[in-house]
Prior knowledge:
The protein is of the alpha/beta class.
Amino acid sequence: MVTAFRAPYYDIITMATPSTSIPAGSEASTATPAIRVKALAKAYPGNRKALDGLSFEAAAGTVFALLGPNGAGKSTTIKILTTLIRADAGEAQLLDVDVIRQPQEARRLFGCVAQRSGTDAALSARENLIIQGRLHRIPKLQARERMDELLARFRLTEAADKVVSSFSGGMQRKLDLALGLMHRPKILFLDEPTTGLDPEARAELWRDIGDLARAGTTILLTTHYLEEADRLAARVAIVDKGRVVAEGPPEVLKASLNGDSVHFELEADAVEAAVRQALASVEGSHGLVCDRRSVRIRVTHGASALPRLINALEAAGIKVASATVARPTLDDVYLQFAGRSLRGTNGDSL
Length: 350
């Protein structure tokens, strides 16, 4: 019996309304957004507001990234779009299907890879994929052809008959991707897919995600890795406290911030009030963020402002260990619109 196996949550979603065959192709009209979210609201018990009017649109065949710290509402958005929970208010569409009113139809359109691996570690990669094919009621021959195709795509053919418990973290995530793609979905949800991976495995997964988008799959990616969103996404929505505070192509968002970012590492912990007072006299400086020994501030022209900033800190008895000047990053965009840095933030995952 299929139900004897432990299924990842994207399997459980599809068990209620399996497709009778593999959908043909992943092309979608660019005239209609592949994903459309309007004014979504969701609160959990205790009046914990996870989403507060969240809105965005993702074009077909692109990577769209939701960027924000834990607790910003990224995972809640994924759960609503994958019909796991219902929104308290708002609208959500996948292609031309209303997720809230037509959940069964919506489930046929997407695959999903959760934050934690959904594989059965006691089974082989091949067995996991066979079960996934059964859950989607894909005809046996088509399922085996699709399985072989996915094993080859994610470079897992040689390991196909090994138990998943012997896999590295990167291999497990590749298998998770394969499971989510077994039924050829038009839309793929990736909820922080590279968390915990080493740099080499993360780079490999980035390549695979980029290849999927170029092949026509629409990907909604949630992440708190700035470089991940910057590298992969055609468009980014920066989320804070359940709302989109900035949205657009990464380069456009960064270019919207004039000036440079200056980062200081101090020799000892500093009180923010003292740092703020010391740097207040430096003309053109703004957006100060101080976290013990780390100080970041935005200035109109980094090269000319740097000596004045260092002198101001040293005059206040605050010793500088190192200093760097850089062009704006997505973290600077987050700081501009959310009022704080994204790096180092944490909270409950909602």
